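Hi L.,

You mentioned the student needs an example of a multi-chain input paired with its predicted structure. This one should do, with 339 residues in total across all chains.
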Amino acid sequence: MNKIILSGQTQDEFEILAEKLNVSKFRARQIHNWIYLKSVKTIDEMTDLSKDFREKLSEIAEVSDVEITTKQISQDGTIKYLIKYPDGNCVETVLMRFDNRANLTACVSSQIGCAINCAFCATGKRGFIRNLTTSEIVEQVLTIQRDTGLRVTNVVFMGQGEPLLNLGNVLPALKIFNENFQIGARRITISTSGVIPQINKLAELDMQSTLALSLHAPVSEIRKQIMPIENKYPLPELKKALKNYIDKTGRRITIEYLLIKDLTDTLDMAKQTSIFLRDLKCNINLIPYNPIDKNDFQKPSNNSVMRFKSILEHSGKKVTIRLERGADIDAACGQLAGK
Ligand code: SAH
Ligand code: SF4
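Structure written out for the whole complex:
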């Protein structure tokens, strides 16, 4: 018999389990806290449960069935885990610590590989393999917590995969992060390449988390060269969907913009981007391109990054530059390929 995996279960499911084992609902709450708040690795560590009960529970359940295959620590403190699921597939999850804050941000994957195939992204080069289940998504944050003994405070869906093409599993994971891990909805960000029908769906659901859009170019001709999704969901319609999302939810979105030397980092692109974003309620996060194998793109110069930033700031937007994290261990944006 396959054992029940406790990680990823909801409070209701723990209660059903407690009932099955003839113990009170209070035990369900204790198990819940051991799993999500104290991040134990084994049932034996659940020391406020009697030894008998722990033995009974161990016969039918275990904490987790994923393995850490490799763990790499970057000079800047970023940790990258390669996690292996029981079917043998692996996925990365990254923990970023920012020195100036107490925040611990987990960058999680939503799929193994990705079907969108952006030209600049190592995950895209891998192709699409499969969706991750809700508990496989949740397991990534639990793996970090179990390994470090720390509690994650922020989650970004910016690892492998297009989260909006796996909403059926991503939304329940969001709920678990929020309710079980007690991570505030506003500390969770979902990043998308721009899947319009799903953006509309999130607007209907009035999602409380932050939506981030990978814009990367303000005009279709250039966007098409780097993001094939532009052919299916072109910028004018994408903009309508974003406006609708902002109207319905009342929330500001994040625009991610990838700066590639001489392609998307030019003066002209900066001006066009500020025009494109003029009437959108958004913050902008500039991402200097991180080199990957298999393409000819180059990093932007510091000057062009600063020029881009200042042009957008002139249009009244808040602009940040994404710090490169973990590049020495291939954990930076776009470098995740499950290798
Ligand atoms: N699939 C989603 C979320 C994962 S990617 C999306 O594309 O939005 C997270 C961010 O990293 C995206 O903005 C993506 O465009 C960016 N990215 C991908 N490859 C990159 C690279 N080589 N250098 C810098 N950023 C990259
Ligand atoms: Fe997929 Fe995002 Fe990579 Fe594009 S950037 S291939 S959407 S993971």
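You could point out the following to them. The chain has two domains: 4-62, 67-329. DSSP finds twelve helices and 14 strands in the chain.

Best wishes,
N.
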